[in-house]
Amino acid sequence: MTKTKGWFLRQTPLMADVPEREMELLEQAADSVEVRRRHLIWEPGHASSHVYFVRGGIVKVSKVNDEGRELTLHFFTRDHFFGEFALVSDAPHDTLAEAYEDTLLLKVPREEFQRVMMRAPVLAMRLVKLVSERRQKLEQRVENLLFRSAHARLASLFLELAISFGVRDSRGIIINLKLTHKEIASLIGATRETVSFAILDLRKDGIIQTEGKRVIILDEAGIRKLRAA
């Protein structure tokens, strides 16, 4: 298991160029955790005491308001790192993280990861960049919610998901993430009915195709134009 953990950490882009000694410290501190589909990794109020690497599966992070309405913030899949909030604050989580499908994680105590960051400046700088990029994406999401139509928000979402989950074939880009219309609605701040109508419009215009819960982008130029509308 130790060898398997070490091999995985060395393949993760975040850890590129981290010195071998620091990699060994992380390898020793990391625990492998299996989380079944729909089981929680943390919920609001839980201590933010660990950071995580996804070895397999998909993790969803969301916020739920007092009325029970959910807004999905992120999906993380293989090679992704999450839980970085624990590195900068002792406050408990204010989000909910769950396994979207059966998931295998590497779980590292905050103190151990911070120790490695102090010894490996390249990792610290890469994390600063990662946090900044994620903040920019969330700010863009807020801007979309406030100022763009449901069709433009949907186009923006599909292009964003294509980066992490997209697989190209002869038809276009398959977004290899199965989402219901309700789940898509929670990602773009719309109602399920609005999402259903918007997807129907995109299908009629030949911009996307659907296969069950998967979306295929047929017209990449068209969906980029719609995002900017």
Describe the protein:
The strands form three sheets. This protein has a four-stranded antiparallel sheet with strand order 1-8-3-6. Strands 2-7-4-5 form a four-stranded antiparallel sheet. 45% of the residues lie in helices and 24% in strands. It has two domains: 2-137, Jelly Rolls, CATH 2.60.120.10; 148-228, Arc Repressor Mutant, subunit A. A hairpin with a 5-residue loop joins strand 4 (59-64) and strand 5 (70-76). The chain has helices at 2-11, 20-29, 110-119, 121-147, 150-165, 181-188, 192-204, 220-228; strands at residues 31-35, 40-42, 50-56, 59-64, 70-76, 81-82, 96-99, 103-109, 166-168, 173-175, 208-211, 214-217. The model has no long low-confidence stretch (mean pLDDT 92). With 229 residues, the chain is an alpha+beta fold.
- Low-confidence runs: none
The gross shape turns out to be: globular
Within the CATH hierarchy, at the fold level, what is the topology of the largest domain? Jelly Rolls
Q: Note the total helix count.
A: 8
CATH superfamily of the largest domain: Jelly Rolls
What's the order of the H and E elements?
HHEEEEEEEEHHHEEHHEEH
Largest sheet: 4 strands, antiparallel
Overall structural class, as computed from helix and strand content, comes to alpha+beta
CATH class of the largest domain: Mainly Beta
Overall mean pLDDT stands at 92
- Helical percent range? 40-55%
Tally the structural domains. 2
Q: How far apart lie the N and C ends? A: 50 Å
Q: What is the radius of gyration computed over CA atoms, rounded to a whole number of angstroms?
A: 19 Å
Tell me the strand order in the biggest sheet.
Answer: 1-8-3-6
Known CATH architecture of the largest domain: Sandwich
Tally of DSSP β-strands: 12
Q: What portion of residues belong to β-strands?
A: 15-25%
